[in-house]
Amino acid sequence: MTDRQPYLPKILGQALLTQLLLFMTSSLIISYSAYFELNQTVLTVISSVLAVLTFGLPILFYCKCTRIKVFSLRHTADPRRPLSSQKLILLFFAAVSLTVTAVNLFGMLSEALFSMLGFTATESEMKSIPLFAAVFFRNVIIAAFFEELLFRGVVLHSASGKTAVFKIFISGLLFSLMHCDFTQFLYAFAAGITIAFFALLTGSLVFAVAVHFSQNLITFIFTVIFSNSNSKFYNSAVTYSFLFFATVSVIFIFLICFFRPLKIYIRSQLCQGNGISAASEVSDEIQKADGKNEALRFRIHNGDKNSKNPFFCPEIRVYIIACVTYAVVTLFF
Question: Which domain holds residue 14?
Fold first, then answer.
């Protein structure tokens, strides 16, 4: 690492701390806005503006310090051969299905765990068209775009040179901590690592945004159904949709485990995204695997593994501690 190269994890940590400070400030503003007796639609619009600032300013800060353009973050891995439209469509359905299934399964697990501790979640309701539009803009559009830009764009860029497994893990971890809410940690982490996996697999941030958008859109649709229909119809819609997405997820996981061409394709894509561009090199490693199809060891290309500057620099450690502390305070107080 030369003197001219910025230490990316340090700048990431500073950007995340900025995001956390803005998040806490926004939460304080929203909580005090209740004294002005504003309706839900106005509060949602205000929170949307604050959300744009909360994520937008740290992203601009990171790009300014690293001297890269925001548009450059659209690539989540090293340049590779573009995927065909058929593969992208299939991967998109698999990604959405896995994300929705993970959110539902870990959401139910989280709800069960916290209910045993005496914490109960409440379903939000929407009754007016203006509120529909405001919530859609905030929860579906803003959240999908800015959260992906920060936690799949900036975070994966900062982890340049690390293994694919590490990139997926750290993206999911920081994404789940960002919510500062223990009740959301499990399913946010599951969704984060799932989207990060497909972001690296396709090498496209646009793909990750589309998956996140679809997940949030599905949640939004069921919130609307819950608010404007009877419980029997809502429960039926939730059950059948969950079974559909779970079935697609099981089929995709089965293919990954037992369909060798897909397994080789995924390994080669992830390896290529971490500095291994020669197809012959990937093929040689696969041929060396024994009959049990041992997992390939994802390698790094710029020596960060032995760097004196670890990824978990003081700024990132402070961010993790601060998020956990804030989550504890809001949970009990």
Answer: 8-332
